[in-house]
Amino acid sequence: MFDPISLWMQGTVLWMKMFKQQQEAYIRMLGAFAEKLPQENAAGLAREAEAVKATLKAANKPAKPAVVKAKTAAAVVTA
After folding, report:
1. Domain range for 57
2. pTM for this prediction
3. Over 80: is that where the pLDDT of 65 sits?
């Protein structure tokens, strides 16, 4: 029996697997490049990694929504 949902899911899973494989290959490539970058010592590399980690934590922190005071009906009408 033909089931379009199952067919669609099989295609989706195929593309998700392919996308994951591409991401993993890209990460491996970046790791290989990073190994070849010259570093004077391990302390410099650790400082650089900590700086990047701090930047990522700050960037991933969601902003607090601004609190807006509700206006009364009279204030809205006169405004």
Report:
1. 4-61
2. 0.43
3. no
SS3 sequence of 12-54 = HHHHHHHHHHHHHHHHHHHHHHHHHCCCCCHHHHHHHHHHHHH
Instruction: Identify the CA nearest to 49 among candidates 61, 37, 66.
Output: 37
Q: Is there a domain that residue 74 lies in?
A: no
17, part of any domain: yes
Tally of structural domains, the chain:
1
Distance between CA atoms of residues 17 and 23, nearest Å: 10
Residues 6+ apart with CB under 8 A from 68: none
| Burial of 9 per CB tally in 10 Å (0-12, 13-18, 19+) | exposed
